[in-house]
Fold this sequence. Notes:
This protein is mainly alpha-helical and 134 residues long. The chain has 6 helices and 2 strands; from the N terminus they run H-H-E-E-H-H-H-H. It folds into 2 domains: 1-56, Multidrug-efflux Transporter Regulator, Chain: A, Domain 2; 87-134, no CATH class.
Amino acid sequence: MSIGDIAQRFGLATHVLRHWEAMGLLAPARVEGERRRYGPDDLYRIAVILRAKEAGFSLDEIREMMATSDAAERRAVLLRRRAELARHIAEAQASLELIDCALECDHEDFSSCPHFQSKVAERISLAPPPHVRV
Length: 134
């Protein structure tokens, strides 16, 4: 497949694929006057790069993870990102719980609702307001 075909398939600009190649993330075959040709393995590699970016990996981390043949080094990169992603998911879940609490609140100003305030207090390690039983 050509660079244009790949770019269209993944919804990317061609300059993104060229940048990833310059960074050492991709190495498409060259044919006919240095034209890039992407094969099935390149498709999977691009999909991995996109998923890794969604998980918060930087391009340098992706290159480090994909370029190493040292399993321990690759594992260290993955464990660092896993811990960060788990933290991010926990924070997002806590935010979702606060949103759900606000959605369930009938107070005119949900931020003054004792139940909502207790939920906020749980999330930011504040003592609940004195008039609220948790």
